[in-house]
Amino acid sequence: MGCNQSTSVTAKKRRPNGGPPIALTSHERSQRIESIKETRACGLGGISVRYAYLSQRGYYPDDQNKANQDSYSVTHDFAGQTADAFFGVYDGHGRDGDKCAQFVRDTLPTLLAEGMTKARENNDGAELTKERKQAIILNAHRECNMKMHSQDDFDDSLSGTTSISVYLHGNTNRITVSNVGDSRTIIGRQMQTSEVENGSSSSGGALKAFALSRDQTPYRRDERVRIRRTGGRILSLDQIEGLEPIREDEKERDEKALMNGGGEDIILGEEIDESGDPPRVWSPNGDYPGTAFTRSIGDAIAEELGVHADPEMLSRELTPEDKIIVIASDGVFEFLTNQSVIDICAKFSDPLEACRAVVAESYELWLQYELRTDDITIICLFLDSVDASKILRGPLALSTTEMVGESLNKDDALVSGSTRPVRKNISLEKSRALEKMKAEMNSVHDVTTETEEDFDMEALFNEKTEEEKTCIAEAIRASVVFQKITNSQRELLYKVMEPMKVKAGQWIIKQGTLGDRFYIVQFGTFEVRIVSEGAEDAEGTGGNVVHVYEGSREKDQHPCFGELALMYSTPRAASIIAKTDGMLWALHRFAFKKVTAERGSREGAVEILKKIDQLKGFSPDGLEDLASYLCEAKYAKGDVLIRQGEVGESIFVMLPGGGAEDLVQTKEDGSDERTLSDNDYFGEEILEMRSQKRYGSTVKATGKISCWTLSRSDVKRASRRSSKE
User: Fold this and answer.
1) d(Cα 83, Cα 45) in Å, to the nearest integer?
2) Residues 6 or more apart in contact with residue 286 via CB below 8 angstroms
3) Which of 17, 385, 417, 433 has a 20 to 30 Å separation from 190 between CA atoms?
4) For residue 698, which phi and psi values (nearest 5 degrees)?
5) pLDDT band at residue 422 using 50, 70 and 90 as cut-offs
6) Coil, helix or strand for 578?
7) Residue 494's closest CA among 468, 520, 519?
8) Rounded Cα–Cα distance for residues 656 and 677 (Å)
9) HSE of 309 in the Cβ direction (CA atoms, 13 Å)?
10) Mean pLDDT for the chain overall
11) Residue 410's pLDDT is what?
């Protein structure tokens, strides 16, 4: 059997005195990314395939020597069959997660191949039935799990790995997808224009994404019920720590719903997940193991609670309409939808370029919304042709598209079943870090004294060629921020995108400065550098290189960065420095807000701002403009949002669902203590003309809080613009 697989990657060097890590050399940066050298093409029975794979080690500021815990394997001539191939991705977790993933990478394909070979010999070499193949796959996973438990060179009691694989049977144009954990396989199918959802169509035939696996996490009702029946508890970290309430009737609700046919899954903790705190599996006897998945290879302690290694399987025929298959770890899908991943891949003619683009987009989103990035691994298969004459006919064909416990005979059923929600907001840790950076900036430079001329969006107008519009449209297509814009808004965005020529060595973004622009790389190479917390950039290099963006017109490769600046006026979490000459398209936050004219929660905020006496002078349009300055902030139990007597910079606005009932407002003499409620606001006294700009009360969080903040300096800016209109 021919085999390609991941290898161990050297960790980042540190200074001899234990100081911050030494900046990576070009060779060391390349070691962070492991990939096939070039796309490989092969014929597998009736299927012509081109594939590539890529794995990028995550960025962990507190553990910069952490190994890549993802692994992958690709095996040709699988189990002695020249038309068969096996593709797998393994995402390790826990202290020995890298060793667990590597063990499964080395062991599972071998066990499966041995089982298939033996079964064929016992069947006189005839093709095995779908049921027989799935039984062998199940046994291989179980045996691999047992072998891992008996290993002496690493401990899998609190470590393990996911396993997502595609077993391609070329002689019958069929695949078998096996899934343990929360990695994922998706397929892009060519659809008629009328069949494609809004926003996913493209020239030359659109591809629609379908899931070929279901994430096995506590977000799924059937998995929650199964775990609870085994004795496990399902709670988030905040619920374990008493920061969120525990709903005692949840267990009974899930049982009843499952008995009545399942219905729609309740997406547990959607708000929790928005800040990076998903529901987890816990022992009834203690606060362990805390797995965010319900199946795993390894995890011996969690196995006692029902977190077992039995895969869910789907056997399905491939047709000429199937164009792209993606197998990836959850690092890809934390912030990207299935459709976004397929859309990115569909932009490229080379699977390796598609892998690079998906990993780059995923990595950038991790840096924007988190203080770290996950390890990210992807295998991308382009199906260039599928021999329709090999497609099975009759009853057998109707039974091949099945997943354990669910029928998938219809195309639209391929997307059924819950996956964890895609995150769209920054985590609590990221919010705190940005607030700290902002406070440090304000302590050095009083931004409230700055003046700002009216933002004239029309002054940015510049016409774009159709080629340039296509470049911009393709670059923003996968971004959640731009997914709901209308055609007229898109045309206006084209006009306000500023062309920006840069020279090698030029700083585009500096870590810690307030961000106000989003960038698309037309061409050129740009380094992402980070100075770790507590470290100093003594050499003025911007810190360690954690990622590189490469844009190319020839390759139709246009990564983007700085998306968070369109939503929040927050300090940049990293520096971006041009390594070569290049060109960028820049979108100013004010221009984006004017174009999109945000609705929804900001409209609710306008109604609250109307009630604040200090803002009575604003016109309706002025209040809408003021609402565009609102920034989201998150706080945990025990945090003090404002303190009586301290100089204030911001006022606070509570919207429904933000946890206002967990805020207590008091004064030093103990008078007027009250619990806040939805649509409340506080801190507005710092806006009074003769005030010394000090808070008149203290507000403390007794639970988890999400609110809007509005700085005094932004009120002044909005006031100046309003007075000139």
Assistant:
1) 5
2) none
3) 417
4) -115, 135
5) low
6) strand
7) 468
8) 8
9) 26
10) 81
11) 35
| Residue linked to tokens 């390894």 | 298
Q: How confident is residue 1, by pLDDT bands cut at 50, 70 and 90?
A: low
- How many other C-beta atoms are found inside a 10 Å radius of the C-beta of residue 319? 13
In the predicted model, what is the mean pLDDT of residues 227-248?
Answer: 86
What pLDDT score does 16 carry? 40
| The pair of three-digit structure tokens given for residue 282, joined into one six-digit string | 């816990």
The per-residue b/e assignment along 259-292, b for 16 or more CB within 10 angstroms, e otherwise, is eeebeebbbbbebbbbbbbbbbbbbeeeeebebb
Instruction: Note the pLDDT of residue 335.
Output: 86
Hunting for tokens 């990314």 — which residue is that? 33
CA-based nearest residue to 36, from 341, 380, 357: 380
Which strands make up the sheet holding 663-666, listed edge to edge? 640-642, 698-701, 663-666, 674-675
Q: Under a CB-based contact definition with an 8 Å cutoff, are residues 156 and 307 in contact?
A: no
Condensed to tens digits (0 to 9), the pLDDT of residues 478-533 reads 776 787 777 767 888 888 999 999 999 999 999 888 788 999 999 999 998 988 77
Which pLDDT belongs to residue 271?
35
- In the structure, what pLDDT confidence band is assigned to residue 426 with cuts at 50, 70 and 90? low
Contact 641, 700 (CB under 8 A): yes
Query: Which residues lie closer than 8 Å to 224 by C-beta, 6 or more apart?
Result: 218, 234, 254, 268, 279, 294
What are the backbone dihedrals phi and psi of residue 110, each rounded to the nearest 5 degrees, phi first? Answer: -65, -45
Residue 388 pLDDT more than 50? yes
* 3-state SS track over 361-396: HHHHHHHHHCCCCCCEEEEEEEEEEECHHHCCCCHH
Strand, helix or coil for residue 86: strand
Contacts of 352 (CB under 8 A, 6+ apart): 35, 36, 38, 39, 52, 54, 380
Q: Where are the alpha helices (DSSP H) in 260-317?
A: 270-274, 300-303
Phi, psi (5° rounding) for residue 307?
A: -80, 80
Across 477-486, b (16+ Cβ under 10 Å) vs e yields: bbbeebeebe
The candidate with the shortest Cα–Cα distance to 632, out of 424, 365, 364, is 424
Distance CA 187, CA 380 (A): 10
- For residue 422, give both structure tokens: 């895609």
Q: Span 206-214, mean pLDDT?
A: 92
Task: Centre a 10 Å sphere on the Cβ of residue 656 and count the other Cβ atoms it contains.
Answer: 10
Q: Strand runs (DSSP E) across 214-260, as ranges?
A: 233-235
Rounded (10°) angle between helices 221-230 and 250-259: 120
- Burial class of residue 37 in the structure, from the number of CB atoms within 10 Å of its CB (0-12 exposed, 13-18 middle, 19+ buried): exposed
Provide the residue type at 211 as one letter: A
Instruction: Taking residues 444-457, report their average pLDDT.
Output: 46
Distance CA 465, CA 471 (A): 10
What is residue 172's DSSP assignment?
Answer: G
C-alpha 300/C-alpha 641 separation (Å) is: 43
| Predicted local confidence at residue 289, as pLDDT | 94
Question: Which comes out higher in pLDDT, residue 668 or 135?
Answer: 135
CA dihedral 284, 286, 287, 291 (to 10 degrees): -50
CA dist., res. 702 & res. 238, Å (int): 12
- Termini Cα distance of the chain: 74
Predicted pLDDT of residue 390 = 66
Q: What CA–CA distance (Å, rounded) separates 588 from 592?
A: 6
Highest mean pLDDT among 145-149, 245-249, 631-635: 145-149
Burial class (CB in 10 A: 0-12, 13-18, 19+), 617: exposed
Structure-token pair, residue 646: 């301290």
Q: How many other CB atoms are found less than 10 A from the CB of residue 675? A: 12
Residue 710 CB: number of other CB atoms within 10 A?
26
Distance, CA of 481 to CA of 599 (rounded, Å): 13
What does the pLDDT read at residue 276?
Answer: 58
How much is the pTM?
0.69
CB count in 10 Å sphere of residue 105: 22
